[in-house]
Design brief:
The complex is a heterodimer of chains A (116) and B (110).
Chain A lengths: L3 E4 L2 E4 L5 E7 L5 E8 L3 E8 L6 E2 L6 E5 L5 E5 L8 E8 L11 E2 L3 E5 L1
Parallel strand pairs in A: 2-11
Antiparallel strand pairs in A: 1-3, 3-8, 4-5, 4-9, 5-6, 7-8, 9-10, 9-11
Chain B lengths: L3 E4 L2 E5 L4 E7 L5 E7 L5 E8 L4 E4 L2 E6 L4 E6 L8 E10 L2 E4 L3 E6 L1
Parallel strand pairs in B: 2-11
Antiparallel strand pairs in B: 1-3, 3-8, 4-5, 4-9, 6-7, 7-8, 9-10, 9-11
The chains are: A mainly beta (116), B mainly beta (110).
């Protein structure tokens, strides 16, 4: 009954360091997403994966890369962290996006990332 | 740019009162959703209303949609302390890309 699991829950990095945020879902969903949430800004889409083997840019992809490792896992990588990337990062999944009827997204509890 | 914008930004009410939150959006949509976020947690989907629907109910939740005004409202009746959370509207005008608003922070005082 785990749903969407994100690791780590908290992380502090120094400017220029790299890091990979992990996300796994156990609901057999096809589509997965990475968002960042900043105060007063709502959620902004970084990257998404409509299905295994595909990834596409969202609204704010600069400074990030993603890998859809398999159907369950979708990772987000910061190659050279910058203070502007301090945020809370959420991973989400849904059954299949873009197929007519909207599929609600299921969210993990987030990774709180601070970059000094 | 954000598709959905909630109003008010914050709302404080007494337990038992009704809470109304509004959402406005800019472009045509297929449907609109409302999500709840408890402090320190991820978002949870509450309800979806399609563009050809005007009102929808789920338990103590009532959602309306006015496509001519590009607006929606979420009403929580007989609110409880456990309803304290942030509430977000979201639209999917662009297929895969659900666009979330900045949210309304609701505080229900016991």
């Amino acid at each position: 009954n785990a749903g969407v699991t994100q690791t780590p829950k908290f992380q502090v990095l120094k400017t220029g360091q790299s890091m990979t945020l992990q996300c796994a879902q156990d609901m057999n969903h096809n589509s997965m997403y990475w968002y960042r949430q900043d105060p007063g800004m709502g959620l902004r889409l970084i990257y998404y994966s409509a299905s295994e083997g595909t990834t596409d840019k969202g609204e704010v992809p600069n400074g990030y890369n993603v890998s859809r490792l398999n159907k369950r896992e979708f990772s987000l990588r910061l190659e050279s962290a910058a203070p502007s990337q301090t945020s809370v990062y959420f991973c989400a999944s849904s059954e299949q996006a873009g197929q007519g009827a909207y599929q609600p997204q299921h969210f993990g509890d987030g990774t709180r990332l601070s970059i000094l | 740019s954000q598709q959905g914008e909630e109003d008010p930004q914050a709302l404080s009410i007494q337990e038992g009162e009704n809470a109304t939150m509004n959402c406005s959006y800019k472009t045509s949509i297929n449907n609109l959703q409302w999500y709840r976020q408890n402090s320190g947690r991820g978002l949870v989907h509450l309800i979806l209303i399609r563009s050809n629907e005007r009102e929808k109910h789920s338990g103590r939740l009532r959602v309306t949609l006015d496509t001519s005004k590009k607006s929606s409202s979420l009403l929580i009746t007989a609110s409880r302390a456990a309803d304290t959370a942030s509430y977000f509207c979201a639209t999917d005008a662009r297929g895969f890309k659900t666009i979330f608003g900045a949210g309304t922070r609701l505080f229900v005082k016991a």
